[in-house]
Amino acid sequence: MSNDRSKQRRGIWKADSIGGLEAYAQVADVNGGNEMPLDESLYRARGYEPPFDVLPTQAEYEARRK
Questions:
Q1: Is residue 43, in this structure, part of any structural domain at all?
Q2: Potential cystine with 61: which of 13, 28, 52, 66 (Cβ 3.0-4.6 Å)?
């Protein structure tokens, strides 16, 4: 199940933990569909690509898109 899910979605940016909440990654369907936040621990456990540590921050991601 995790392999299927990780092939259908990719991480696009990450956000640091704040106020006791876990850091998370924004993931998107590879077909350009929906986006959703996913806690860092689930992102890592499900084997999404690229690895969490190399995801850009949201600000870095948005700056590259301009």
A1: yes
A2: 13
